[in-house]
Amino acid sequence: MAHNGRGQHVQTGFHFKDSLLFRPYAPLRPLLDHEEDGTLDLVLKTCFFHRNRPGGTMSNILDCLPEGEEVEVKSPSGAIHDQGHGCFSINDETYTFDEVSLILGGSSVTPGYWIIARFLGDKSDKTKLRVMGASTSENDGLMKDELE
């Protein structure tokens, strides 16, 4: 999946009795082609109902699933495809950049994390990378330790 889905997301679905719920998630692994083993790692933030905001439907379902329960996953998709070395395919047109800036917000950090990890893992990639993150509170952001 890494080769075909760099920086993209997968659609994760859960079947109810009479409907299907889908939500996009950006996988954290595999990052590189040699890591592909037919599995993927996702980071989910379980958002419980709060008086000022609704809970996260899919994150709560996935958080409560018993081991062995099935979910549906569709292959990677998205308009932006990281091809490495500052090269991105955006809506089927290729662009190359010497510098890339990412703005990561709250629980939507995983697509950016994927690109950061891939950049840092490829010592031959000389693209300059700048990252700015934001979240509702200091404790609200996902993967803070990994990003630091």
TrEMBL record:
Q: Where in the cell is it found?
A: Membrane
Principal subcellular localisation of the protein: membrane
Per the record, the domain of life is: Eukaryota
Tell me which UniProt keywords the record has, alphabetically: FAD, Flavoprotein, Membrane, Oxidoreductase
Alphabetized Pfam families for the sequence: FAD_binding_6
Cofactor dependence: FAD
- List, alphabetically, the SUPFAM superfamilies matched: Riboflavin synthase domain-like
Q: Does Ribonucleoprotein show up as a keyword for this record?
A: no
Instruction: Write down what this protein is called.
Output: Flavohemoprotein B5/b5r
